[in-house]
Amino acid sequence: MKNANVTVTLTNGTEMPILGYGTWQNTDPKECIDGVEAALKAGYRHIDTAQMYGNEQLVGEGIRNSHVAREEIFLTSKLDNINHGYEKAKQTIEESLERLGVDYLDLFLIHWPVVEGHEEDWKQDNIETWRALEEAYEAGKLKAIGLSNFKVEHLENLLPNCRIKPMVNQIRLHPGVLQEETVAMSRENGMVVEAWSPLSPIPQMKENEAVIKMTDKYNKTIAQLLLRYCIQKQFVPLTKSVHKDRIIENYDIFDFEIDEEDMHYFDQFEMEGDIFM
């Protein structure tokens, strides 16, 4: 297994590891703590959580249990929908730091652009909320700031009103969901694009003859192919599991490359059913 500590550089010079360990739905205390610890011991150096996940304290404990130095870890959290607005956001950033047991976050994101209570005034709400992130960034509490689930219309509203431009946009990305316009606009404005839920197509791909042939061709699992696909698309994938063997397997994607024909196949793949974004 090759070293996976490949990074992408954000606009402010911060280095972000190109593969992240996600913790969505990891609320069982033992599973969450052990999962974070196992990921760091397997070599991951990018951990992603959120206020909404309700597990920041557990993630912090997993980090401490790993005995990996804090400065080696790229740690992300995100603003809960109920904490929008300048004053609330400012206060809750401090609360995230406290729950995680850290002095700073490497990245902090606005989790969703339109939230309950701000359906009508979401444009001004995002501008005011972003101001709190800018101030925490300038104070050194956040090493980088960005967005999650912001599409073109949300970006068009926020970007002209930023003193500090977002450095990241974390959106759902995988074969069948490529969000090309949002990706293009994010990149045009200097943002690194992160991919959440990159393994969503697995159930549909298990019976797919072309994909099964690829698993034999590359001697990799479908999950490994999907993560590698993201990296070759220059997305930063966030993968989650609470199973140690799967955590290790998902990390083992840096010793092969998907060829152009197979990348094209994934580009054209169509997901069935409703796609939640």
From TrEMBL:
This is Aldo/keto reductase. One of its GO terms (molecular function) is oxidoreductase activity, acting on the CH-OH group of donors, NAD or NADP as acceptor. The active site is at 53 (proton donor). Substrate binds at residue 111. CDD domains: AKR_AKR1-5-like. The record marks 78 as: Lowers pKa of active site Tyr. Belongs to the aldo/keto reductase family. InterPro entries: AKR (IPR020471), Aldo/ket_reductase_CS (IPR018170), NAD(P)_OxRdtase_dom_sf (IPR036812), NADP_OxRdtase_dom (IPR023210). PROSITE patterns: ALDOKETO_REDUCTASE_1. Residues 19-269 form the NADP-dependent oxidoreductase domain. Keywords: NADP, Oxidoreductase. It comes from Pisciglobus halotolerans. It holds the Pfam family Aldo_ket_red.
